[in-house]
Amino acid sequence: MPKRLLTDLSRDELTAWVESTGNASYRADQIRRWIYGKRVNSFDEMHDVSAGLRNLMKEEFELFGSSTVRHQVSKDGTEKLLLEMKDGEHVECVLMREEKRQTVCISTQIGCAMGCVFCASGLLGLKRDLSTGEILDQILRLDRLLTSEERITNVVIMGMGEPLANLKNLIPALLTLNEKGGMGLGARRITVSTVGLPEKIKELSEMNIPFNLAVSLHAPNDDLRNEIVPVNKNIQLERIMQAADDYFDKTGRRITYEYVLLAGVNDADKQAVELGKLLKHRNAHVNLIPMNEVAPLSLEAPSSPRTNQFVETLRSWNVNATVRKRKGADIDAACGQLRLAEQTNETPEVYPLEINT
Ligand code: SAH
Q1: How far is CA 81 from CA 146, 148, 172, 213, 336, in A?
Q2: What distance in angstroms lies between residue 68's CA and the mean position of ligand 1's atoms?
Q3: pLDDT digits (tens, 9 = 90+) for 9-21
Q4: Distance 107 CA to ligand 1 centre (A)
């Protein structure tokens, strides 16, 4: 029998398992504290759990669902892991450091079905969803890269895949991130980024936990968005904007709109004006992301003056806008790039490269 991944179990499920072994239920919280709070790497490090219960856990469960096959460290302190799951599939996750802030970016699927034309993750289609434990595994692995003074302060679900297309497995992971007995991160420190799936946005709002929502817009009208984000043909902007407005009404959290700037495609003043009109009466923040180059694609980022002009035009419509800082550019930190290179057997240029299994 293959062992189960311990982090696939919710708090209630782990409690039920602990009770089924004849142990007191509070042991489940102890175990969770070791995993999420104290960064242990083995069951044997859980000192206040009896040897008998530790042995039962070892027979039944794996503590980690992946092994690290690549560990890259950028000059700016960003670190990126390529994790190999039990079935040999690869997942990317990133740790970004800023003063007093450690943000991790994690994936929810292997590949992606959305097909956004500029994105590396979708180039090979969707392989499968990640399980709850596999989503959390990335957090655990990145957490163990931190020094004892550092801790994860923010989580962005902006890695490979469409998080809301795997909401079933994401919800228990979000709960563990948020719970006191889990990672204990406030909801406002957790951001879910979506291509914009209206029913799923509603479902997320029904958790009644005010997570940040980021909607990847990339175009201010359906004609252009249909070209850049092919799934838009079945959705349409109006429904996305309605769902985002409802999310704001329900949670009070200002919505972020992501907009990847593609030179000559969606970066003209005309589009900035249209975007300004779309958002001026909304409580919104626009995060402009200059396109990160993806090897097989010919799309590229606009020049800095063009980018700045786009920002200024948006601001002239009273829309709050910033340009995303590039982090880990020297290690291909935009998610999906490393897995793509691994799949196509190209060796990405990286600095410096450390292998850590
Ligand atoms: N599927 C989700 C989350 C994953 S992508 C979504 O669409 O939001 C996270 C963000 O990175 C999205 O805004 C996405 O459009 C952006 N992104 C993907 N590939 C990129 C690239 N090559 N350059 C810049 N941003 C990219």
Answers
A1: 13, 19, 23, 25, 12
A2: 23
A3: 999 999 999 999 9
A4: 11
